[in-house]
Specification:
It is a single chain. It contains 26 helices and 30 strands. It has about 950 residues and is of the alpha+beta class. The strands form five sheets. The chain has a ten-stranded mixed beta sheet with strand order 3-4-5-12-13-14-15-23-24-26, with helices on one face. Strands 7, 8, 16, 17, 18, 19, 20, 21, 22 and 25 form a ten-stranded mixed beta sheet that branches. A hairpin with an 8-residue loop joins strand 13 and strand 14 (about 460-465). The chain starts with about 25 loop residues before the first helix and ends in a 6-residue tail after the last strand.
Length: about 950
């Protein structure tokens, strides 16, 4: 086997910003002529000894579109004019996309046709470049020819981390700059006032409205409370920042910095005037707050829960209304797919027998707290206000979308006798990608994998010398809503008996048109009122008393704490087996499901600072802001409390298999989002992996095929459509329109119910008519099935708790439309349980009442046929109305995945897959 040496490329390309095709070809050519100067640094060949690798060439990974997320101005202009791609900007996009049609014939030997070789180091004949950043003698960055991933090897800890920062800036400087401004609520003033930018900064700053002092305090706390590891984390972070800033200085003086700085007015392309602000340590906390809010903070939604409960009680009375509400909530549904299927109970956030401290709003009194004030110019347009409304809804919802999957099989059921894992995070699709790949080898660090750009001092998801790990978003509730009683005026509240002023935190942003973003000049002020119980989200009255509803998150003011867990995961001296892995991830305070595999063992642990609630408090609803209902041992100044012990978190070692797709973790462990019922996208993995395990002899290829097959499945077709057709076919279908639609749906179901192209690259779905019919039918049938029985008010309230549908063409909050992730939240369980009940079949955990046709099979059949006929008559243009990318009626395009531009480089869309953005395939052959 060729000797492997970690590697480094020098000719790094610069990051993309968001802008339309604004330049004509002639002007592009003129500009390029004046900009094609030497951008790159000199490369030299050097060999670095690879660390011990126990994977035996059986570790693989992939992260589209490509490693290089930086582009100079010339490269951006070439891309905009001619579609030219900088080196390594999209060389992982094709293999990733090709798995959709290529997985059916996959073998172990062809896995790396669709994935990268994730072995440590680089074969000597594959070294593209070798660099000693800033001339340092204690670190080498080697980049390979195929993907350009940096392999960073340091002889000192400082040098290793310096190299990590330098390589991160080489690959993602513009993106890192964008997201440190998102975290501070300053994106529009930095990158432009586009409505999407306004929505993005509003959504995240609402959840983490920190001052600069808050950001620094979080660093100080993380260091002070973690002993030697805290001190090491601080030293690592400072070295990492030194590396970032060294690259900023070098690229600025060498004029090969990301071209977006020119296009957004921060630098002058002719004189080089202007500044790229150096990074500081509080930027890392700002970045962390964005990632934590997006992927790792389960909870919220208590006010929406209260509104729907009151609607149910108004319709049915308190007792029956509560029973109906609980049946739709499905806190502990016996038919729900669970990651831990051994029956062990892990009670958390369960419904108390006698709830205490409830602070339910008076009907009709709830008003959302406005975030944006004093709008001027383009900030006052209808487009801008619509973006604000969407951001507000997303920020307070318990439904966090698009969050990862995992398939892990014990060695007892594999062909080799070694565990196999196929897992990764589903983080949306961006250009450049939010994550970056790297290998780190240095004193106390040995890992390869993915990290969020700007936080890559450690590998956050990846592999060590003889183990690999990954995560999915878990969603257990670490956010509670408190009702603070107002006193004196709307900006004072009772805090433990004393009338106390709220703290006003503001951020004023202004922008003007730039080449990158032509949005007209505008400005606004974001204003958050903070209390000891968290930021104010709503105003209401409770029993006639004026209150503010606040949200208190256990990770608020603790965005930096998880650094210790990631440090441990990278330390081969710490992680030596499943128990030490579980110990490491216990130090991560975000809400994640963590999975582990080595050559002998598998493991699982659910992380997060789960607060110990007062006896009788129902985590699903707002409670009074009074000492009796506060978290136990809660200290407001530091937002610390008593947390449930590690043993109370769902955890396991060597279960026969694990699956996770943001489904329920374990028996009695309640998650904040609704929808953990009989039909969940986790079922798509459970069905396939269970079948493989029962047959035995699982291989890497067979597990990848199971994932890829599930990635093309329409959950509604696979798990709900058979029973819908059973109702319709309970009598002969005589209507020709209905019969034709049934025939198409049945044929699609027989073919597997997949949303897949006729042939690779055809951009046309097989069974396109059937897919169009189901897409049109689902929202119609749900409304017709449930609204008559629930009434419009309660039906509407329930849809605020759980959306009816989530097709591949739906928008996904901050990740936008064309985001891949689909079928996470919807009414599939409700339809499934109700239809089975009407059919007279056994239903565990049924809905409190029968709804379809009032419980009559014939009447239910009439409802389904009527709505099916309407759906069949909907044209493709009506079902898929089109957007900036897709023409109306283009079904394939509506579903397709787009790398959402966060910089100047654009990529083509690819066929839909519902799979992780970054993904590993691992099977270790030996252990230390």
């Amino acid at each position: 086997m060729p000797r492997r040496i970690p590697r480094t490329a020098l000719d790094r390309l610069r990051t993309p910003g968001r802008f339309p095709g604004f330049l004509k070809t002639a002007s592009v050519c003129t500009l390029i002529a004046g900009l094609l100067t030497p951008f790159s640094q000199a490369a030299t060949a050097a060999e670095v000894t690879a660390a011990n690798d126990y994977c035996g060439n059986q570790c693989s990974d992939i992260l589209p579109p490509g490693q290089n997320g930086n582009a100079t101005l010339a490269q951006i202009l070439l891309n905009q004019a001619f579609g030219t791609q900088p080196a390594h900007a999209e060389d992982q996009l094709g293999p990733y996309a090709n798995l959709a049609k290529g997985h059916s014939t996959l073998t172990n030997s062809t896995i790396n046709t669709f994935f990268n070789d994730a072995s440590f180091g680089v074969p000597a004949d594959q070294v593209a470049s070798t660099v000693k950043p800033a001339g340092r003698g204690d670190v080498t960055i080697v980049r390979d020819k195929k993907t350009g991933v940096p392999h960073i090897t340091g002889t000192t800890r400082y040098g290793t981390e310096f190299g990590a920062g330098y390589a991160a800036a080489e690959d993602r400087l513009w993106l890192m700059d964008v997201f440190r401004h998102v975290g501070r609520g300053q994106l529009t003033s930095f990158a432009g006032g586009a409505a999407s930018n306004q929505g993005l900064e509003q959504q995240f700053w609402r959840n983490a409205p920190y001052t600069e002092a808050d950001l620094q305090a979080q660093i100080d706390n993380a260091v002070a409370t973690n002993g030697a590891r805290g001190q090491q984390a601080l030293a690592d972070a400072n070295a990492y920042l030194d590396g970032i800033n060294a690259y900023i200085d070098a690229s600025d003086s060498g004029r090969y910095f990301p071209g977006e700085y020119v296009l957004t007015g921060h630098k002058d392309s002719i004189t080089n005037a202007g500044t790229i602000e150096r990074f500081k340590i509080t930027d890392l906390v700002a970045l962390g707050s964005v990632i934590g809010a997006l992927f790792g903070s389960g909870g919220g939604g208590e006010v929406d829960n209260a509104i729907s409960l009151l609607a149910a009680q108004e319709k049915y009375g308190v007792e029956e209304g509560t029973r109906v509400w609980e049946s739709f909530r499905e806190r502990n549904d016996p038919e729900a797919v669970m990651t831990l299927h051994d029956g062990k109970s892990f009670p958390y956030a369960v419904r108390p027998e006698n709830p205490q401290g409830l602070a339910l709003p008076d009907p009709g009194s709830v008003v959302a707290e406005p975030l944006v004030h004093d709008r001027t110019g383009s900030a006052a347009t209808s487009t801008a206000t619509a973006a604000s409304a969407t951001a507000a809804t997303t920020a307070v919802s318990s439904a966090r979308r698009g969050m990862s999957n995992a398939l892990v099989v014990s060695g007892d059921h594999t062909a080799s006798g070694h565990p196999i894992a196929v897992f990764g995070p589903q983080t949306g699709y961006f250009a450049p990608q939010l994550l970056l790949l790297q290998e780190l080898q240095g004193p106390g660090i040995s890992a390869r994998g993915a990290s969020f750009a700007g936080l890559s001092m450690y590998v956050e998801l990846g592999r060590g010398q003889d183990y690999a790990w990954s995560a999915t978003t878990s969603g257990q509730d670490i956010i509670d809503t408190y009702a603070v009683e107002l006193c004196q005026d709307d900006y004072h509240y009772l805090y433990r008996g004393t009338c106390t002023a709220m703290e006003k935190v503001e951020r004023t942003n202004a922008w003007k048109p730039t080449t990158a973003d032509g949005t007209a000049a505008g400005s606004y002020t974001m204003r958050v009122w903070r209390t000891e119980y968290g930021p104010v989200e709503y105003r209401a009255t409770v029993g006639g008393k004026k209150v503010a509803y606040t949200t208190l998150r256990s990770s608020f003011l603790h965005e930096a704490d998880s650094i210790i867990g990631f440090q441990m995961l990278n330390d081969p001296g710490y992680v030596t087996g499943p128990e030490s892995f579980q110990s490491a991830v216990q130090h991560i305070n975000y809400t994640f499901n963590w999975f582990y595999a080595d050559s002998e063992h598998t493991a699982y642990y659910n992380s997060g600072d789960n607060p110990v609630r007062a006896t009788g408090v129902d985590a699903d609803f707002p409670v009074w802001a009074q000492p009796a209902y506060e978290w136990r041992n809660w200290e407001p100044a530091t937002n610390t409390a008593a947390y449930t012990p590690a043993s109370a978190h769902p955890n396991s070692i060597d279960q026969d298999y694990y699956i996770s797709w943001n489904n329920k973790q374990a028996k009695d462990y309640t998650t904040a989002p609704w929808g953990d019922g009989s039909v969940h996208r986790g079922n798509l993995l459970e069905t396939r992996v269970k079948k493989l395990v029962q047959a035995g002899g699982v291989t890497r290829a067979s597990l990848v095929k199971a994932m890829a097959d599930a990635a093309l499945a329409d959950l509604r077709a696979e798990d709900v459509l058979p029973d819908l057709l059973k109702v319709i076919n309970s009598s002969p279908v005589t209507d020709t329109t209905a019969a034709s639609a049934v025939s198409r749906l049945q044929a699609w179901l027989t073919a597997g119910g997949k949303r897949t192209e006729t042939t690779a690259g055809s951009k046309t779905y097989a069974d396109a008519d059937a897919i169009r019919i189901l897409d049109a039918w689902w929202p119609l049938l749900v409304k017709a099935q449930f609204e008559p029985g629930l009434g419009t008010g309660l039906y509407t309230a329930f849809t605020a708790n759980l959306p009816v549908d989530e097709t591949p063409s739906a928008a996904h909050g901050p990740t936008g439309a064309h985001a891949g992730s689909a079928f996470q939240y919807g009414w599939w369980s409700y339809v499934d349980k109700d239809i089975r009940a009407v059919l007279g079949e056994s239903v565990r955990g049924p809905l409190a009442r029968k709804y379809c046709g009032g419980g009559s099979l014939s009447a239910c059949r009439d409802v389904l046929i009527t709505t099916l006929k309407t759906a069949a008559g909907r044209t493709a243009a009506q079902v898929y109305p089109g957007d900036d990318l897709c023409a109306a009626g283009n079904q394939w395009c509506a579903d397709s995945i787009v790398q959402r531009t966060l910089g100047g480089i654009k990529h083509g869309n690819i066929s839909w897959q519902n799979r992780p953005t970054y993904q590993q395939v691992v099977e270790f052959t030996s252990h230390r």
